[in-house]
Amino acid sequence: MTTSKERERKYQGLRGHYGDKTFRGDKRLDFRTTAMATTPEYTLAGDIKQVGKTMSLLDKLDRLTATRDIKKTRAILSMKSDSKITKPREERIAEMATRYGGVIPHNYVRYGFMVAKHPERHTPTRPNSSKGKIGKTDFVGFDAFNKGFVKMEKSLLLLTRDRVLGKALSGQLNAIKSKVTTTVSK
What we know:
single chain, mainly alpha, 54% helix
């Protein structure tokens, strides 16, 4: 049995998806729809693991770009990254994908077109009424990024051993960080 919060999250995600209002500039609705699409009902477990690994590698990239010290850089590169996603998992993935800047855990309060025109009328929930409305979510490019990042990590570790090449490392990392993009499409 689903909780009322899960039902509300699913309702708002489906309403945004089928209302043709997603990805038109409303970051909050994009976030809610993406969070709904990354629930275990619509996502495979292997895809979630790949996304978790990518998120941990991006965090490592953030730590690498924050330092200029070669010793710290080598320490960060040699550390193993934890691919576990902190709770709430769906919202963390949606935050990464949509670049939503709000508070997590997210407050699913209805706004705008989601508010009922006649709130005095209450239609009871119908179990499994949304079953089969959305297919499985596709996660594209995460595996390729993870493999490429591991190769880059090994190369950077070799570069940091050379003092002359190690000085230009910070600029190169910032250039790579600025090229990483995530997109969510309907």
